[in-house]
Every structure is written in C-alpha cells, then in structure tokens.
Specification:
globular, alpha+beta, about 25% helix, Thiol Ester Dehydrase, Chain A, 10-stranded antiparallel β-sheet, about 290 residues
C-alpha cells in the first residue's frame, strides 16, 4: 500500500509546481486504475480504531476502518502527475459507502481505486474517487466507497459549468441524543489509528501553516463515530451516506441526533443522523445508514 506520508510530501511539492505554473494545463482525469493486492487488516490498529470510535470489538472490520485501510490507494490516484487538481487543499464534501459483505481481520484483500465525475461546482471543481475492496480471488465487491472532493477556487476550462447553489433549508437543531467533547488531541488520536497524518488535523501550528485558523477533526472521524452510535442493529450489510457541511475546529463540542425508522414489520430499516455545534447552531454533517 502506498505511504500516505510520502503522498503528502509529494502533494506539497506538486502544489508548489502548480502554483508557479498556475495550473497543470490538464482538464481530464487519468484513465488509470490503481490496484493493490495482498492487503491485510492490522488487528492491533483495528482494535485501537474500534476503541477510539466506540465500535463494538468484533472480528468484523468496521466500515470506517476499511475506508482508512484503503485510503492510501485512493490518495495515490489524486497524487498522480497527470491528475488535473492539486491534492493539497481538497475539501471532502461527501462520502457514500456500500458495505455488502463482511470483512474479517484475517481476510486477504484486493483494493482498486480510480477517479471519475470531474464536474464544475459553484466554488471550484469537484471529483469522485471510487474505491472497491474485494476478498482476494473473489470478483464480488465486499466494500465500495465513493468520496467526493472539491478543489476550491479551481475552474478548469472545458469542464461543466459551475453548479447553481441549491437553497439550503433552515436548520433547526433537534434534541441531541449524544454530546461529544472533542479535545485538541482528537486529530492526532484518529491519525494514529487511521494513518491519515494530514497536517490540518494534527495541531493548530501545522494547520495555520496551511491556512486554517485551528486544527480540525477528520471528517471521517465524525462520520465514523456517528456510524458507531447508530449501533449494531445495522448488521453487516448496509449503505452509509454522509455530507460534510462545516469543519469541526478543535477543541469542540458536537451535538448528535440519531433518528431510527422501522419497516412495516417493526424491524430497523434506517437511521438518519446529524451533527451540529451547540454554541453556533451550525450544522457540521448530515447522513443516513440504511439496510442494503
């Protein structure tokens, strides 16, 4: 699996080149797919992940852990020389996951990643990075994730016109079902179990060096913690969709509400969740988990 730290260093070097040359000159995504074979979950890291995120300690790998395990392959696609957008500064807008078949800690896995859906956005250019995880020697996809990223302020010639901003409904905070108290160390703790040592999450000093006023929590930390709060009734096969709206600057308090829906037989069918700031009332993320 590619080294995330090397990818970040390479991204910084490429970002400097693109700044000097004022862009890559490319307006199309590379057709290449990055394939990594023989990937094995790390039992120690998986257990630490479960403890940090509040997941039940089972042999089945949590959906968020698989995202972290496969993330370097996805990052390597965005770090290519022929990728038209700069990896550094990308904003994570949305994540959609289908966890179709359970993955156990001892399973040998194949990971495939590629980019698609280069489109205009009112604030720049967005792209989807698709990652699929299969059991070794099996053609069936066990886990599939689509992460949507935004390159703010980057408008590529020939790419679809920027989207018209959709009117956002006024958010009225519901009664919270949980309150998270996130310390300044939250980013470093998640980096230790996920391997994602992006400087904007590690400290205020490193975050300010990249233009942030303080360090921010990983989006996948908040999304994965909300998924853990949904509970075990989601089973081993489910779809998980989350949209990120505002960063969580650390330290912070985050209110969470989870609303469960049942089917005609009274069995669990879906959970909708939302996280917001209790001080400003601003919504950080919104999503749902539903049975496949």
């Amino acid at each position: 699996m590619p080294s995330l730290s090397r990818l970040y260093v390479g991204a910084a070097r490429e970002a400097a080149k693109k700044l000097v040359s004022r862009g890559t000159g490319r307006t199309a995504l590379p057709a290449a797919r990055h394939h990594v074979t023989g990937v094995l979950p790390d039992l120690v890291k998986m257990t630490e992940y479960q403890a940090l995120l509040g997941e039940t300690k089972l042999d089945v790998a949590p959906a968020g852990y698989i995202h972290a395990l496969a993330f370097p392959a996805a990052m390597s696609v965005m770090g290519r020389d022929d990728f038209p957008l700069s990896l550094l500064g990308m904003v994570h807008l949305r994540n959609r996951v289908e966890y179709r078949h359970p993955v156990y800690y001892g399973d040998l896995l194949d990971v495939l990643a590629w980019a698609e859906g280069l489109t205009g956005h009112r604030a720049g250019t967005q792209v989807d990075v698709v990652t699929e995880v299969r059991h070794a020697g099996n053609d069936d996809v066990a886990w599939r994730g689509v992460s949507t990223y935004l390159a703010k302020g980057v408008f590529l010639p020939g790419v679809d016109k920027p989207q018209v901003a959709e009117p956002r409904a006024e958010f009225r905070a519901p009664l919270p079902t949980a309150l998270w108290r996130l310390g300044s160390e939250t980013g470093r703790e998640y980096a230790a179990v996920s391997g994602d040592f992006n400087p904007i999450h590690l400290s205020s000093i490193s975050a300010r060096a990249l233009g942030m006023r303080r360090s921010i929590a990983h989006g996948m930390y908040t999304a994965s913690r909300a998924l853990a709060e949904v509970g075990a009734h989601k089973g081993d096969s489910f779809a998980w969709d989350v949209k990120f709206e505002a960063p969580v600057f650390l330290p912070a308090r985050v209110c969470l509400n989870i609303a469960d829906s049942t089917d005609s037989h009274g069995a669990w069918g879906r959970s909708d969740f939302v996280g917001w700031s209790p001080s400003s009332g601003r919504r950080h993320f919104v999503g749902r988990v539903e049975r496949l």
